[in-house]
C-alpha cells in the first residue's frame, strides 16, 4: 500500500520537477524556524533548570484546571530547593502512579542535585517550571502567545544556562 | 514540549527535550530531542531506580554539547529493564 503510494508520488514528481523544488523549499523553510542557541558552557559550570509538562507543582499552589476540556496553559514555578514530598501532580491525562511514588520519574530534581554535588553540573537553577501537556484550542494558543514566552523570560532572568524539558 | 523548548531557545538558552513519543517530536520538533523507548509517566526511568534516572539525566545533558543539528533526534541505546545502566557518578 505504502509502496504503491510512494511509486505514484515518485511518478508525479518525475513529471513535475517543480513539485520537488517546492517541497524542498517548504521543508527548508520549516527547518529554518527551529531556533538554535549554541551550547558553549561546560556542564560543570552551568546552571540547569528543569521544565516539565507533567503537571508538577508545589502542594498548596493552585492546581492545574482539570475541568477545562482544552486543558490549562498556565505554568507553576517550582523552587530549586523544594523537597520532593512538598510537590504534587495535577494531570489526569497520563498514568502517574509510578511518579506518585517517585517524582524523579518525570521530574528528577533529586538526581540533578546529586550531579551538582558531584560537580558534574555547576548548579541547580533557582526556579524550575511545571506545565501540563495535552492542550487544545484556546489554551494551546495561550501557551504560544503568553505562557511559553513568560517561561523563557523567567529562565533568562534567573541566568539559567541550560534547560532540560521533559514530558509527563 | 517542543513548542516551549523552541521559545526558550529563541530567548537564547540552549535546551534539550526528552521524548517518549517520536511522532510528537517529529510533528513539533524541539531544537534538540533525546528519545528513550520508555513509557509516559516514567520518562527518566522506574521509581526508586536512581542509577537509571541518573544515567538518562546525564545522557540528556551531555547531548546539549554533542548535538549540532537543529531539530535532530538522538536515540539513547536503552531498552528499559533489559539494559545495564552505568552510574554517571560511579
Question: Could you walk me through the main structural features you see in this protein, from its secondary elements to its overall organization?
Answer:
- The complex is a heterodimer of chains A (168) and B (90).
- Chain A has two domains: 2-32; 43-166, no CATH class.
- Chain A is built from five helices and seven strands.
- Chain A has helices at 2-15, 17-32, 97-101, 109-117, 137-157; strands at residues 47-52, 56-58, 76-79, 87-89, 123-124, 127-130, 162-166.
- The longest helix of chain A is centred in the last third of the chain and has 21 residues, at 137-157.
- Chain A is globular.
- By secondary structure, chain B is α/β, with parallel strands linked by helices.
- Chain B has one domain (2-79).
- Chain B contains three helices and three strands; from the N terminus they run αβαβαβ.
- Chain B has a three-stranded parallel sheet, sandwiched between helices.
- Classes of the chains: A alpha/beta (168), B alpha/beta (90).
- At the A-B interface, helix 3, helix 4, helix 5 and strand 7 of A face helix 1, strand 1 and helix 3 of B.
Amino acid at each position: 500500500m505504502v509502496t504503491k503510494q510512494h511509486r505514484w508520488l515518485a511518478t508525479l514528481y518525475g513529471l513535475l520537477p517543480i513539485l520537488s523544488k517546492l517541497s524542498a523549499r517548504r521543508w527548508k523553510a520549516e527547518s529554518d524556524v527551529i531556533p538554535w542557541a549554541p551550547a558553549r558552557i561546560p556542564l560543570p559550570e552551568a546552571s540547569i533548570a528543569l521544565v516539565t509538562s507533567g503537571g508538577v507543582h508545589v502542594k498548596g499552589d493552585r492546581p492545574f484546571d482539570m475541568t477545562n476540556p482544552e486543558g490549562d496553559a498556565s505554568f507553576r514555578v517550582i523552587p530549586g530547593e523544594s523537597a520532593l514530598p512538598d510537590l504534587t501532580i495535577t494531570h489526569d491525562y497520563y498514568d502517574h502512579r509510578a511518579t506518585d511514588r517517585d517524582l524523579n520519574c518525570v521530574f528528577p530534581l533529586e538526581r540533578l542535585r546529586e550531579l551538582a554535588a558531584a560537580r558534574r553540573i555547576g548548579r541547580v537553577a533557582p526556579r524550575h517550571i511545571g506545565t501540563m501537556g495535552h492542550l487544545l484550542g484556546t489554551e494551546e494558543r495561550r501557551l504560544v502567545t503568553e505562557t511559553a514566552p513568560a517561561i523563557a523570560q523567567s529562565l533568562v532572568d534567573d541566568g539559567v544556562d541550560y534547560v532540560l524539558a521533559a514530558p509527563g | 514540549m517542543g513548542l516551549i523548548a523552541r521559545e526558550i531557545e529563541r530567548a537564547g538558552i540552549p535546551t534539550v527535550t526528552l521524548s517518549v513519543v517520536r511522532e510528537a517530536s517529529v510533528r513539533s520538533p524541539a531544537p534538540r530531542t533525546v528519545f528513550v523507548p520508555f513509557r509516559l509517566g516514567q520518562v527518566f526511568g522506574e521509581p526508586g531506580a536512581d542509577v537509571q534516572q541518573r544515567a538518562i539525566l546525564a545522557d540528556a545533558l551531555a547531548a546539549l554539547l554533542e548535538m549540532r543539528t537543529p531539530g535532530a533526534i538522538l536515540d539513547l541505546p536503552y531498552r528499559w529493564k533489559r539494559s545495564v545502566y552505568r552510574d554517571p557518578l560511579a
